[in-house]
Amino acid sequence: MIVVENLHKTYSTGLGKKGKKGKGKGDGNHYGNGDGDVKALNGVTFRVNKGEIHGIIGPDGAGKSTLFRILTSLLLPDEGPSKATVAGYDTVKDFRQIRQIIGYMPGRFSLYQDLTVEENLNFFATLFNTTVKENYHVIKDIYGQIEPFKDRRAGALSGGMKQKLALSCALVHRPTVLFLDEPTTGVDPVSRQEFWEILDKLSEQGITILVSTAYMDEANRCTRISLMQGGRFMATDTPKGITESYDELLWSVEGERMPALLAELRVHPSVKTAFAFGDNHHVTVREGISVDALREHLTGKGFNKVRITPIEPTVEDAFMKASMEVLNGNE
Known about the structure:
Elements: E1 2-11, E2 21-23, E3 29-31, E4 38-48, E5 53-57, H1 64-71, E6 83-86, E7 89-90, H2 95-101, E8 102-105, H3 117-127, H4 136-143, H5 159-171, E9 177-181, H6 189-204, E10 208-213, E11 224-229, E12 232-237, H7 239-244, E13 249-254, H8 258-267, E14 271-277, E15 280-285, H9 291-300, E16 307-310, H10 315-327
Helix pairs in contact: 3-5, 4-5
């Protein structure tokens, strides 16, 4: 349904050779090349099958928004031997056809804030020569939750209600492919849960969904995921496949004075990596050190109530490992 091969996108910063760090349009900070240009996408390759929920997982500045804008025909990729198609249509040559079959929710709320909920929905239906009545069955489960507020201006809606209105507008013309660029950013946990339940139903109806997020916990709701950093895909697999490929010895470490504890872990010769994860630290260690030995070392350094537990990796652990490999040139 979506095919991407060797996709590149470079932004010119206008800084010349003096520019060492640039800012890509809509994708945060990227490091540029020697000419001051910013490489937002660097050889991205992946496929999305019909009916999949495919997640692009990565932080701000990874290149997610640039990728979405190219796939929705809003931005041209760099010239070269690359390929990007949606439902068989080329994103450059067949942009008119693509815009008829896709729904797109950009990262920022982009509906007309001075129009009411109902006016926004009617406007977007008109753009595609259809009506809300004709396709009400497509948006019923979503729009029905905000329909009691149909006379309220869009700018006065809560974050969760804006999200549902934007999704309704993206679906009102019955698209076959849905692009959602960080749709749950800034939304409360309950609304996030409701939103993913809606995506599951849309996937069951055969709609192909490409969704980006910076929330690692949302990865497990996807059919497959791609881990993205610095304009590249570091890995693509099912969430289970991503975590099962993790081959490090991983421990959770808790104790008093957690910031100081993290600093001490990072200088220990047997600790390979140490990162803060919520109310504990996740560390990878070299073979030969035991839980008891590390606990005794930390206790000897003045840390009390140290608890160390071997744990199973999460998608976030896999992401951090892949990011470190790219940073160290071991990709």
